Amino acid sequence: MALLETRNLSKSFGGLQAINNVSLKVEPNTVHGLIGPNGSGKSTFFNLLTGVYQPDAGSYIEFDNINVTGKPAHYIAEHGLSRTFQLLRLYGELSVLDNVLVGYHPHTKYSPFAPFFNGAEVRRQDKIVKDEMFELLEFIGLAEHAEIPAAELSGGQRRLLALGRAIAMRPKMLLLDEPGAGLSPVNVDNLMATIMTLKERYKLTIVVVEHILKVVMSTCDTISVLDHGQKISEGTPEFVKNDPAVIEAYLGREMADEDIRAAMDA
Amino acid sequence: MRILNKMFAGVVAAGIGITATAAFADDIRVGITMRMVSENGQAYGQMMMDEIKGINESGGINGNMIKATLMNDECKSDKGVANANKMVFQEKVHLLIGSSCSSVTLPIVDVTAKAGVPQLVPHSTNSKITQKGSEWIFRVPVSGRYYGGVNAKYVGENIGTKIAYICAADAASVGDCANMEKQMKARFGVEPAYRADVQEKEVDFRSHMQKIKSMDVDGILVAALAETMARALVQSYEAGIGEDVRRIGSSSASNAPVPKIAGDAAKGVFFTAAYAAADQRPIAKLFNEMVKTRYGIHAPDHDFSQAYDLVRIMEIALKNTNFTGSLADDRTAIRDAIANVQGYEGLASGPISFCAAATPQCRDGNRTAVLIGYTKGGENFETEVLARVTMEPDFGLE
Amino acid sequence: MGILSFMADFIDSLAKRHRLLPWLLAYALLLPLPFVLTILFNEYLIDLANRICLFILLAVGLNIVKGFCGQVTVGHIGLYAIGAVTSAVLSLEPGGFGGALGFGWPIWAAIPTAVLVTAFAGLIIGLPSVRLEGAYLALATLGLGESVRIFIAVTPALGSSTGLMMIPAPRIGSFVFDSFTSYYYLVMTAAITGIYFSFSILRSATGRAFQAIREDTIAASVNGINVVKYKLLAFVLSAIYAGLAGALFAHMPPGYLHHNNFTVIEMVTLLLMVVLGGIGNVWGGVIGAIVVAIAYDQTKDLVFYFMDRPIVFQPLVFGLSMVLLVLFMPRGIGGWIEDFQRNRRFVRRSEERLSGTARNP
Q1: ipTM tops the 0.85 cut
Q2: Going by CATH, does the domain composed of B145-279+370-390 fall within 1.10.3210.10?
């Protein structure tokens, strides 16, 4: 039984078909890679899954046996689908601890009016949640920075915080949008190791979009390849690597040197 | 952080400054709250200050100086009340003068009534001001209840009863319209032939004017503030309504911007006011000359004359007051002295008299309105006095 | 620096014993203020303090929607008007002296009803925030707020141009809140309670959701925050503050309301308080309200002469200070407060680390 399933997922912006009839299944407890050249629609695909964009008519998205097609982002998040952003989108002026506390938001048990009527209950529950979030911060190594504003963290720490915030809501599935962008190869390896530990610890299913093919090839169970908004290949890393369609898509056009090298390394 | 400490020191210094404002015991303290926002508005307040300075320079009140404080209330009731409170409780004034706007004077009446401070009203015409039953209130201008009667009487007897009304939404104009309508109904049993309620600063009257044109009315009442009225007058001619249809202005027609902006369209417009610059009495001619040289204003409107009359009435009352040094007693004595002013003849169109009872009959001192017509518009406008009407003290009360 | 740190340490040590202790201490210190002011200065300053309390309620309320949630609203003054007029009309006697509408309700029923009505109006003023942002939202809320004022101005039943007058003062039994001092206890209690609840909101999940929306709307929605619901909630909460301030303003002697108490100029004054205080900082808003109200009071009789014509000083002072503030102190007084708090926290953490007593916050 797939945890996430899309059928005929499409999205066009004006005349541009960003995503074209993509059907995809993600099995529970796997790491599913999503690759493709620049502009192939990977980020749009994430935005459709998480409700940031509304899909075109005829599309269907099912998450955890619930039809979430066209549902607002917060509804989908409440059902356990979490994500990170390529540009992180941290809450810069909020403290590190508050950032993960916002991530926990869907599980808040008191009503928004509770601070007026039941301050004691708010404080009691917040205390429990804060301890729990502090544990999470300790795990990702940000505990000693808990009180400083997120904007004052270093680049690597911010990537970790983005990850922590996404995990704070105890998701069933985590979508990672280029988690390694801008990091040095060593740091990328460290980050991926952390992600894998988190996966085990929190029983996550992960879908990862990544430019650095080496990362994808080494960690993913299944890989889907997007090109021009269409799924052109899917299978194990070994299968995808040798699929002529994929090679055509990657090499048949201009691409960054780094990407070619990375692809060849894998 | 040093700057925070500096700020703290500043606050302390400001606090000391507040205590330092306590005045000399022998001064007679007068507080004035006025709408000081327009050019004329500032000139009214300035004239009062200048006149009070004049009294001080010629020996003061039986040797005592008057210390006047002028504050701006922007024609807003909350600010006016704050000013009144500040002057009554901080400046500890003997007498309060204010305000220009009825909507500011109305709440201040309650402040002075409760604190026991005599209050002289310079400009406000709303009839409810004196109906609140305060013992401490005295009105120098003509109450709105008289204006409506004078206007209606003259219009019905000399022009006709088929009148179109254009009423803007500001306090004075709404009152003027309502009073006129009420009096036309009471005297002649007629309803308005046409009535349009427009915005306070309406700019487009053309559709109303076209409708009025097709109705063949005897007159059009334009009740609005000066600039708005001027626009309406100009547009009435642009719509082709002839000169035979008389244009009637509300009380603000006496303000100089009306003939200045309306130009030729102001000719033939008439209105009721408490003072006419066309007044031929020597005192009026002297006054016109004085306002022109001092403030550069051609043909002062009745707000100038009322400000001037008010200072004279205050002077008379203060000279008749026995000051004991006890603030409460002095305030009461000033109140009684004002109530004793009888038949003051100044710039106002008729004599001003007060009496002791806390009734509108006693406290609306001026009952004579004058009907004024513009004979020429533009920068150097000219006016003529059409009629002078004195009303019964009870007139317009329910 | 020294005295401030000492005070901050003292407040911290109180808060450690019991969360409410600093608040009770503040309340206890403010209780004798009317007597202190009367003895040291004069009674008028109590009236000024009362108005400052109303401004504090308004500024703290505005800070929830603008500071916490980042929604630019210029309609707050319209909500203030709704609270004031509703409570006034409900409590006025039918067929009273002013000729306006009246229902003759007891005041203690009129005020909560007015607050509820204003909360609902806040929902409506907040509706444009679902689709609009920034300057467009400001324009839409400005229009809504101003239309409230115009509606009052043209409706005789709501006072129109004559205003609502002789609005009764609150009373308990035979005790009437009609003096500066007695009213002070009403508005001061309301202001302190308002500030307290503002912190309660800020420190709950509700406040964190508001701030998340301010910082990044898309990230907030993906974190499971119902952005529309929370934006509207911020408007409703701030409307509750505005409604309470309005109702207390209506019943404050001499009990008079006029639509020109609620114009754009008043809204700008309110914005000045929040901007001076530092957007998003509760204490900043409070200090902003105090500073602006006192500055306004102290400059109101300043007239200077230019070519022998009197020029009223105040608008000039306020216009200039607004421009200078935005240019040179964009974070307002709240910016200083935050820097101060952050420095203190940093120093404390370093000390704890040195002495080996570091703990989880």
Answers
A1: yes
A2: no
